[in-house]
From TrEMBL:
Residues 373-446 form the ACT domain. The keyword Cell membrane does not apply. Pathway: Amino-acid biosynthesis; L-methionine biosynthesis via de novo pathway; L-homoserine from L-aspartate: step 3/3; Amino-acid biosynthesis; L-threonine biosynthesis; L-threonine from L-aspartate: step 3/5. It comes from Corynebacterium vitaeruminis DSM 20294. GO terms for molecular function: homoserine dehydrogenase activity; NADP binding. Belongs to the homoserine dehydrogenase family. It is an enzyme of class 1 (oxidoreductase). NADPH binds at residue 124. The keyword Amino-acid biosynthesis applies. This is Homoserine dehydrogenase. InterPro entries: ACT-like_dom_sf, ACT_dom, Asp/hSer_DH_NAD-bd, HDH, HDH_cat, HDH_CS, NAD(P)-bd_dom_sf. Its cofactor is a metal cation. Keywords: Amino-acid biosynthesis, Methionine biosynthesis, NADP, Oxidoreductase, Sodium, Threonine biosynthesis. Catalyzes the conversion of L-aspartate-beta-semialdehyde (L-Asa) to L-homoserine (L-Hse), the third step in the biosynthesis of threonine and methionine from aspartate.
Length: 450
């Protein structure tokens, strides 16, 4: 069951010694990079105390110097368009990557690690796609790879999973890790408005990007789920291992039905340790709209806030809440990592690296246990309910509640199932869809575990 060790004894970094300056290169000067530089310069004295030596920014790499004319970085003479040369400077010890994207930052980050520089990145897509080669390069050079800002920005969750919970057994992590989708779903819940109207509002307020696909279709959350699952279960999980569904099909009617049953709908990143009847362990990482009880701690996470709910064997339930995006909140996490990496440069040693020793298999999504909330319109006549309940029974699915309402001459039926395998639930819905008395399946939404 073991395939790797944590922090293999490769190059030992013995440290420069207290009082020695630590050189920093910042790659990217957007919303996050500009706040990182500002806060580093404003709090230089405090950072020196916390790191053991002064932190000196050696340069800020950008794609166009003109674009940032007059900025703080420009005033300090730090701007350069030559990121590679900046990384290669002998007086640069730590490279801070806040560019975004995958291919170009991957090349720069690998180059930095291979040249013995520690790396701090906020780039979830990069870490979720390439953790193996990044960790390998960091291990080989004996340097740090920090990425607290990659998941839920200011909320400390990577550090707690890597360090504070290293002595515990994490059972599950459920997170609202995308602020844009939480804003949209919360606004739909509180106003009754449609998805399209609330997406437009999120765009107007600057939460959603011009192309909102990465957020609303769950790609951003899936990268974060991969990172959380890797850390929680000591197993390498990439974004491709995460089952992903977005929120664009959620209707005002779904939200209203959720409310009527005492629930709300959240886009959750769910990472779980599963144990089958034979005691075999596997893990599941998935992102999909999920019904949760309004009394669940995650239900009160409103607007664009993020929260991560962890259940661990000894610790019990933990919840981390706060700002999951934005310049300053992201800079806060980046700066914490810079201080950690700088301390190691000054005093020697490394932070915990990638831990993949458990190497658990990723469960087939069809085998994942879940519950469904199914809302449908059917003909209101004798035998229809009996026909439908028989189909559930044929697929070994037990019903928890069934509600029927009159609707425009039809019957509206809302089924809530007990826990069953995803594959059986999906097959049931497929079979039900094809029945003559079933006029429409209005929605199928999974419920959080009880
Ligand atoms: N776009 C993300 C969000 C923040 O809406 O939360 C960066 O991951």
């Amino acid at each position: 069951m073991t395939n790797a060790t944590t922090n293999p004894a490769t190059t030992y970094n013995s440290g420069k010694g207290e009082g020695e300056p630590v050189g920093i290169a910042i790659l990217g000067y957007g919303t996050v990079g500009s706040q990182v530089l500002r806060l580093m310069l404003e709090n230089a004295e405090a950072f020196e105390h916390r790191s053991g030596g002064p932190l000196e920014v050696k340069g800020v790499a950008v794609s166009s110097v003109d674009k940032h004319a007059g900025s703080l970085a420009d005033q300090k003479g730090l701007l350069t368009t030559d990121a590679r040369a900046l990384i290669d400077r002998d007086d640069v010890d730590i490279v801070v990557e806040v560019i975004g994207g995958i291919d170009y930052p991957r090349e720069l980050v690998l180059n930095a690690l291979r040249n013995g520089k520690s790396v701090v990145t906020a780039n979830k897509a990069l870490v979720a796609a390439h953790s193996a080669e990044l960790a390998e390069a960091a291990d080989a050079a004996g340097v740090d790879l920090y990425f607290e800002a990659a998941v839920a920005a200011a909320i400390p969750v990577v550090g707690p999973l890597r360090r504070s919970l290293a002595g515990d057994q994490v059972q599950s992590v459920a997170g609202i890790v995308n602020g844009t989708t939480n804003f949209i779903l919360d606004a739909m819940d509180s106003t009754g408005a449609s998805y399209d109207d609330m997406l437009a509002e999120a765009t107007r307020l600057g939460y959603a990007e011009a192309d909102p696909t990465a957020d609303v279709e769950g790609y951003d959350a899936a990268s974060k789920a991969a990172i959380l699952a890797s850390l929680a279960f000591h197993t390498r999980v990439t974004a491709d291992d995460v089952h992903r569904e977005g929120i664009s099909s959620i209707t005002a009617e779904d939200i209203e039905a959720a409310k009527q049953s005492g629930n709300t709908i959240k886009l959750l990143a769910i990472c779980e340790r599963l144990v089958d009847d034979q005691g075999n362990e596997s893990i599941s990482a998935r992102v999909h709209p999920t019904l949760i009880s309004r009394s669940h701690p995650l239900a009160s996470v409103d607007k664009s806030f993020n929260a991560v709910f962890i259940e661990a064997e000894a610790a019990g339930r933990l919840m981390f809440y706060g700002n999951g995006a934005g310049g300053n909140p992201t800079a806060s996490a980046v700066l914490g990592d810079i201080v950690g990496a700088a301390r190691n440069k000054v005093f020697g040693g490394r932070a915990p690296g990638e831990s993949t020793y458990a190497n658990l298999p990723i469960a087939d999504f069809g085998d994942v246990p879940t519950r469904y909330h199914i809302d449908m319109e059917v003909e209101d006549r004798i035998g229809v309910l009996a026909l439908l309940t028989q189909i559930f029974a044929n697929h070994s699915i037990s019903l928890r509640t069934v509600r029927q309402e009159e609707k425009d001459g039809h019957a509206r039926l809302i089924f809530v199932t007990h826990t069953a395998r995803e594959r059986d639930l999906a097959a049931t819905v497929e079979e039900v869809k094809g029945l003559v008395p079933v006029k429409a399946i209005k929605s199928v939404i999974r419920l959080a575990a009880q």
